[in-house]
Amino acid sequence: MIVGVPKEIKNNESRVGMTPAGVFELVKNNHAVYVQSGAGEGSGFFDEDYQQVGATILNTIQEIYAISEMIVKVKEPIAEEYPLVKKGQIVFTYFHFASSEALTKAMINSGATCIAYETVEDEDGTLPLLTPMSEVAGRMAIQQGAKYLEKPKKGRGVLLGGVPGVAPGKVLVLGAGTVGIQAAKMAAGLGAHVTILDVNMKRLRYVNDVMPSHVVTEFSNEFNIRKHIKTHDLIIGGVLIKGAKAPKLISEEMLSDMRPGTVIVDVAVDQGGCIETTKPTTHEDPTYIINDVVHYCVANMPGAVPYTSTVALTNVTLPYVLKLANMGWRSACNLDKSLSKGLNIVEGEIVYKEITEAFNLEPVLV
């Protein structure tokens, strides 16, 4: 199969869809790999690194899309890429379709087969291709939140860990999934007081078992959320419903209950955000303020640490890329039920129920 790795062109996205190690494995399996010139530079991988393992370097993104049977990338195609995606092509990337009707319609019109990293699902319900980026984003959420709590960044002026004689900052984590647990771990490591909310008691019991005593768990409901937002300095939105829009747990009206300079980091922004006032931002301009509350809603947080993120992503995507390249998408998905859950749009037809629900469309079964 001919596999293409384009340069990411989303604002401040420095990751790349595949490391040279990944390319090496594809070439070893007799596949042709074309990498756009400069695609890996942001992650510390250069054209010669790819050439040394057998890739061919092409200069433009148009050439990559034109020649490739399968595109492997990191983020969803943006508007200027829509016309480049072609009928019969496999596009394997993070899509988050439920948050963008324009992207969904563009991929339907393209006639391509779109396999979304974020909906590949193992038998136990875990999301193996989303997990490493959720781990990165969860940890980063505390780094960024701690920074934006500083007064020059318009935050409350609170040091999360406190100092002797001064109480530590308080962190409220919405969701005890991968993002929430990694955020809680980082916040606890800094010495902050952490409250983590979820509706899944199994997850809360797990958190209670593995976290130190200054991480406390509570059942998630509106009453408890309203209670905690009044006293917590940093709020992390880490709620995920597989393939669907995130529920809005904090309304705009609730911001008035927060103290000026409170910081919200909504990691769920890729799926529409779990805060009503969430709107996607970029690393170039990451925050905005509503009702004196600082919102950090960067839609590609792991893109700020591209080396770590790219290596972590290729570690988990490569086995699936090899299956798709070796067998084609139909045979690969028939044999691998986890991979088949990644099918979102097949040759112009939506086949993932949550997307149809997001836009009131009819699903097609494959």
Structure, briefly:
By secondary structure, the chain is of the alpha/beta class. Helices cover 33% and strands 17% of the residues. The mean pLDDT is 95.
Explain this structure to me?
The structure is a single chain. This protein is of the alpha/beta class. The protein has two domains: about 1-120 and about 305-360, NAD(P)-binding Rossmann-like Domain (Rossmann fold, 3-Layer(aba) Sandwich); about 130-305, Rossmann fold (3-Layer(aba) Sandwich). The chain contains twelve helices and 15 strands. The chain has helices at about 20-30, 45-50, 60-65, 100-110, 130-150, 180-190, 200-210, 220-230, 305-325, 330-335, 335-340, 355-360; strands at about 1-5, 30-35, 55-60, 70, 90-95, 115, 170-175, 195-200, 215-220, 235, 265, 285-290, 295, 345, 350. Helix 6 (about 180-190) links the parallel strand 7 (about 170-175) and strand 8 (about 195-200). Helix 5 (about 130-150) crosses helix 6 (about 180-190) and helix 9 crosses helix 10. About 50% of the residues are buried. The model has no long low-confidence stretch (mean pLDDT about 95). One of its GO terms (cellular component) is plasma membrane. It catalyses: L-alanine + NAD(+) + H2O = pyruvate + NH4(+) + NADH + H(+).
